[in-house]
Write a structure and sequence with these properties.
The structure is a homodimer of 92-residue chains.
Chain A (H helix, E strand, L loop, with lengths): L4 E2 L6 E6 L2 E6 L4 H21 L5 H35 L1
Antiparallel strand pairs in A: 1-3, 2-3
Helix pairs in contact in A: 1-2
Chain lengths: 92, 92
């Protein structure tokens, strides 16, 4: 997908608060979707921070991205297995 | 899943470089998996940075997490639709 980017010059901007910082996020997604994503990132940052209280905010954000990409890869594997299974069902 | 955390006290540590910063990541995943995830995060940070050259590294990391969680939610929706479809195929 096209990457969401920070912008204050394009339409369809959504302002969100993540870990005490304001972000203006632009993308094709609806503002309610962007707010959902932002709140999940905020939750994940707080969860990781509680386990690593000494972490500076920059490392915390990178580690949050690492966790999210890890979750993404796992679910992508699951999706590919399911697609193969569905194909097998259809072939029967 | 259990969150990956930064640690230098637990076994199964993997040292990775993300956007010029070193991270020691611990988790149940294999070092090769962790290195794959780290390289994807590094790629995504560089992609977003190229589109937003004025972004400070902290905002860049948060925005990378936002993108990763966005991708995760989209693929999760896709997985759920496929699971429903597979169930329908099995019921026929």
């Amino acid at each position: 997908m096209e990457a969401l980017t920070l912008s204050n010059t394009q339409k369809h901007r959504t302002t969100v608060d993540i870990y005490g910082q304001q972000f203006v996020i632009m993308g094709t997604e609806s503002p309610s979707h962007i707010r959902l994503v932002a709140s999940l990132v905020d939750d994940k940052m707080r969860e990781i921070s509680s386990k690593n209280p000494m972490l500076d905010v920059n490392k915390l954000a990178v580690l949050t991205a690492v966790n999210a990409v890890n979750d993404y890869i796992k679910i992508k594997d699951q999706l590919e297995r399911l697609q193969a299974e569905l194909q097998k069902e259809k072939d029967n």
